[in-house]
């Protein structure tokens, strides 16, 4: 591992994560290290990428009497270390999946606003008899597209619903002329989405 990955791997091991594997990474000469959380429910693959450190965070599907959740992933590339650590902390504290309305609540509480969808985002069949688009509070048949923007316009969270295959979340952080995109799969918890979007 090189020095771009060491701060993250050291932070994880200090929290009780255990190195469980190492493989060649996409960047020539780099290695990707696998670490598993103390409870075994989260796995992180850490590797070097241009501009910093990459981490694929994976939450396992769990079906136990005390915890039931669907698995999810977040691809966290070249983000500041505090953002990645905030996402990991949120994943540890809120392991369950979230509806878009739960993420919306966290974002609007932080002063974010919803952006109107473009007309071509929706098909006619998504409208009721009066031509009004209806949102449903369900991950399986809800929200074809929604987006929220930060007060200063430099960050955006987008939810691409079931018409996208598969449904997913996208978080954009813009600095000057450069934009950075983070991808999270369908069942990523609202707390993780908010941590990536709101942490500086």
Give the SSE map.
Blueprint: H1 6-14, E1 18-24, E2 31-36, E3 42-49, E4 52-59, E5 62-63, E6 68-69, E7 72-77, H2 81-93, H3 100-109, E8 113-115, E9 145-149, E10 155-160, E11 168-175, E12 178-185, H4 190-198
Antiparallel strand pairs: 1-2, 2-3, 3-4, 4-7, 5-6, 7-12, 8-9, 9-10, 10-11, 11-12
Write up this protein.
With 200 residues, this protein is of the alpha+beta class. The chain has one domain. 20% of the residues lie in helices and 34% in strands. The protein is built from four helices and twelve strands. It has a ten-stranded antiparallel sheet with strand order 1-2-3-4-7-12-11-10-9-8, with helices on one face. Helix 2 (81-93) runs antiparallel to helix 4 (190-198). The model is unreliable at 119-141 (pLDDT under 50).
Q: Quote the beta fraction.
A: 25-35%
Q: State the low-pLDDT regions, or none.
A: 119-141
Q: Report the total helices.
A: 4
Biggest β-sheet strands, sense, barrel? 10 strands, antiparallel
Shape: globular
Element order, helices and strands? HEEEEEEEHHEEEEEH
Instruction: Find the structural class using helix and strand composition.
Output: alpha+beta
In spatial order, strands of the major sheet run 1-2-3-4-7-12-11-10-9-8
Helix content: 10-25%
Whole-number mean pLDDT: 82
Head-to-tail CA distance between termini: 25 Å
Q: Give the domain tally.
A: 1
Radius of gyration: 18 Å
Annotation, overall tally of beta strands: 12
């Amino acid at each position: 591992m090189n020095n771009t990955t060491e701060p993250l791997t050291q932070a994880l091991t200090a929290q009780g994560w255990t190195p469980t594997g190492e493989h060649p990474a996409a960047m020539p000469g780099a290695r990707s290290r696998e670490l598993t959380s103390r409870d075994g429910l989260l796995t992180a693959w850490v590797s070097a990428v241009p501009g910093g450190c990459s981490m694929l965070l994976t939450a396992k599907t769990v079906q136990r009497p005390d915890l039931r959740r669907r698995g999810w992933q977040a691809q966290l590339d070249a983000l500041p270390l505090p953002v990645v650590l905030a996402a990991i902390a949120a994943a540890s504290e809120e392991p369950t999946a979230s509806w878009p309305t739960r993420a919306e609540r966290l974002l609007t509480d932080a002063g974010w606003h919803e952006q109107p969808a473009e007309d071509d985002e929706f098909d006619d069949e998504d409208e009721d008899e009066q031509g009004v688009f209806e949102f449903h509070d369900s991950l399986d048949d809800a929200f074809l597209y929604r987006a929220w923007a930060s007060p200063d316009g430099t960050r955006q969270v987008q939810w691409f619903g079931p018409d996208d295959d598969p449904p997913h979340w996208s978080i954009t952080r813009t600095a000057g002329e450069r934009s950075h995109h983070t991808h999270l799969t369908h069942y990523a918890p609202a707390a993780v989405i908010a941590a990536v979007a709101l942490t500086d």
